[in-house]
Amino acid sequence: MQVFGPNELVADVFQKDLCVGCGACTELCPYLRNHRGKTGMLFSCTRAQGRCYAYCPKVEVDLDGLFALMFNAPYEGKPIGIHRKVLTAKAGLRMTAGKFQAGGVVSALVTYALKTGLIDAAVLTDRKGLIPVPHLVTNPEDVTKFASTKYMAAPTVAMVNKGQQQGYKRMGIVGTPCQLTAVAKIRANPLQKEEFADPIGLAIGLFCTWSLDTRRLLAFMADKLDVGRIHKMDIPPPPAEIMVVETDQGRVVFPLSQIRALVPNSCSICPDLSAELADLSVGVLEGRPDLNTLIIRTPKGEDLARNAERDGFLITAEMPTENFEHLCFAAGNKKTRAFEQLRERDLVNTDGGKRAALRVNASTLKRIGVE
Amino acid sequence: MTVLLTGKKGEQHLLMGNEAIVRGALEAGVNLAAGYPGTPSSEIIENLGLVAKDRNLYVEWAVNEKVAAEVAAAGSFAGLRTLATMKMNGVHVASDFLLHLALSGVRGGMVLVACDDPNAHSSQHEGDMRYFAPMLEIPLLEPGDFQDAKDLLKWAYELSEQLRSVIFFRSTTRLSHASGQVVLDELPANDRRAEFRFDGFILDDMTGIVMSLPINFKHPQLQQKIKQAADLFEECPFNTYTGPPNPEILVISSSASSLYSIEAIHLLGLEGKVGLLKLATTWPLPRKLIQTHLAQARQVLVVEEVLPFLEENIKALAYELAGDIGAKPIFGKRDGALPTYGELNPDLVAGALSKITGAPLPQRPDSYQQRISEMIFFGAPARDITFCPGCPHRASLWSIENVLQMDRRKGFVCGDVGCYTMALHPMNFGSLKTAHSMGSGTGLASGFGKLGRFGMDQPVLSVCGDSTFFHAALPALVNAVHNQSNMTMVVLDNSGTAMTGFQPHPSIEKNAMGEIAEAIDIAKVCAAIGAEVALCDPFDVERTQEALFQLIEKKGPKVLILKQMCALSPEKKGFRKYEVRVDPKACLGEDCGCNRLCTRIYRCPGLVWDKPNKVARIDEIVCAGCGVCASICPAGAIHKVLSENDKGREAA
Lengths: 371, 652
Known about the structure:
- The structure holds 2 protein chains of 2 kinds.
- Chain A is an alpha/beta fold.
- Chain A folds into 2 domains: 6-210 and 265-368, no CATH class; 214-260, Roll (Nuclear Transport Factor 2, Chain: A), CATH 3.10.450.
- Helix content of chain A is 30%, strand content 21%.
- Chain A is built from 11 helices and 15 strands.
- In chain A, a hairpin with a 7-residue loop joins β12 (280-284) and β13 (292-296).
- Chain A is globular, with a radius of gyration of 19 Å.
- The two termini of chain A are 22 Å apart.
- Chain B folds into 4 domains: 3-234, Rossmann fold, CATH 3.40.50; 240-357, Rossmann fold (3-Layer(aba) Sandwich); 392-563, Rossmann fold (3-Layer(aba) Sandwich), CATH 3.40.50; 578-651, Alpha-Beta Plaits (2-Layer Sandwich), CATH 3.30.70.
- In chain B, α7 (146-163) links the parallel β6 (140-141) and β7 (167-172).
- In chain B, α2 (17-27) packs across α3, α4 runs parallel beside α5 and α11 packs across α12.
- The interface between A and B is medium-sized, with 20 and 17 residues.
């Protein structure tokens, strides 16, 4: 992986409007900060190499390198990535019924990982009004407070950086594909310094087709409802085509066509729907609002799911073929669209010293049909 | 006790130009003086304040120059001799009143001392105030040296009472702030009583109503006064000529430029060919005097600073006189012999004379030139214009810049006049995006804050100092509140008119004479107007940024007062609140995570980069102990502990 510095980050990410605000470049130094969902450079930094660039999921992402690190395998561009099992799942009986979205699998897995000491802290995402804010949780009982999807691009990875400074060595993180790409880059310790060694104990991925830009969503909703009173947001599975916002003054429904206009530009170059760089990935299951889809990717993820099920935190079942195929179809579509975008914008496998957003082996690129 | 008070008749003293002006006012028996601080004029009121008690004077730092002129005029209307002082910007501020004062006339002698700053050493422009004289129709005097500064001022009072007109008295930086030998005269008894009479015939100068109306009476009367002034100027003893009876070149000059002219004539050895007419009465010009000298000379060079004011007036006169004296070539600025901007110096004047006469300029020896080049190249370290160590403005602007950069809506700050104007410079965070006159930052912000309907969604801020707040920012804030402009005014309150030397202003509990004065609370004023007000110590960086974030998110007019005394204020200087040190082991230096934030970006002069060891350290001689760097260090490597002297002070 090639590592550049903050000036290149500004040129490649901010100036090209590719920042998704994941927070990976923040909480590392005083120069890059995320405020109200938007990341920016406060003052100039002259370093030729920096963790800001090295951790960013939108520049010089060497997918083969990251797949080798996580799975000891090359990146083959399969729709839902490398997986050992794909199951349906829901929280087990040991989980107190809370305000889960869908099956509560993420809350169950994080609670269990914290209880058993697999992780020493969990990096989760909270919301203040409409602003997503990362949280570091060490008490398993607190996990469910942060349940429910936020839908906004959140600076969650910032908390990984902060947690590392605070001395946590095996943090668990729940993140979207872009956030987990950043986390995988962090785990690779690109500056090869002892103090920046892999601080992650568990990565749980969330399915994501796109997220929403916090500032744009704020501006959009500001004159339609009191954003301070939102307590839940939901995008029901197709064919609903709506976003439902629950406030303590009642329910407000927006057509998805209006909401899609608030998607950050950088989502269009993301080839990952199922958070491939995770130990386990979790998403909704179409037609079953009480269940989740659970993709088990690594031996560690497999052990966790098995033990959680054994100890009553998780219940799993076979995945219906139809659902599996539909998931692969959707994930494959996102991948193809993203690679087309990447090629169109000359952001993949560039040569001649030109920096790329993404690099993958040539045969995979060919298989996806981009080259 | 000051020599300005104790100096006896006939004694010779080395006085600064502004001190000579003060002594001149005292010798004229001045009773009342009011001014607004502004370099290079500030020492006049300061010195008068020191002798106020002994000379039974009333001396005032007014809220702004217009009010200073009004306070001085009130004294004059009641029969006293009065003085108003200001820098050239102030004449613009006061000009509305002065336009009317010229027409209404004065009673007791009133002189307005205005100090120009050619080259803008301590200003944001180098405006030439002389043009106000013909525009407002007020006679203009200019002292040519330090003795003149005293004696001409005294003469100005006689003139003012003869004409019943306010008199402009113009100084410049090199006259106000340089020093020269001055022979003193005696101080008169000071026993004028004040009474304002208004019971006579309505149009009577001394007993009627003091007003600029009716124009068809007052304007011709004023122009009659100007004619009378021109006649009196024919005999003014401060217009002097030195040189041959029929000079090849006549240099006409005034103010500090006449000193440069004397030196330049001497430098070129042209004493036998070039004569110098030093004019003290530069508007209206004494026609006959000019005619006599023009007639005797073959060519003329007008030497003056900044714009060709004198040159244009002399050319107009020469045109009218051409029938009698013939056409004379007149050189100056319009032909490019001298520049129309910046200060003059003897070299520039010598260059102009050399060009006209062909006299060779004395050459510098090569060895001298060589030495200069070496010293510039090797010897002179580059220095940025920057805030002092411990300056609260650095902390305030640091917070403002951090907040605006984090906010990322392209927010900006409308600047104003004060030390904080240095924040225009990228080395001082470059937060200010406009800079004009006093108070105009808030006026501009009031305007910018109404552009939302045209699609502008950038946060709008203004900054102003505590003295500037009262001077001219207050009406702008009233405007912003009344019109519900979306802006945030940040008052950088450093407890005094710091940039000009800590003169008191309306929120300080003392006046120009050192007496107790009523202090006006800025926060209460803003709240009473109807603005949302927050108050923070800028050294508390975290709270300041939090408060600013909250304010810029809200609509409407808001005020954030950042109150912390100037590091150089007499009350604070020498006291270090904290002893500060850098832990070299914790300092990240140039590593990822810091990259010298403190010495490269924050740039307090109290922090130095230890190059061999690649760590920051504190310059203990320079550090003022504010402790702000400890809160900006990302590695927590800068430690502060309450210093011994501060503990002692707190205990006391």
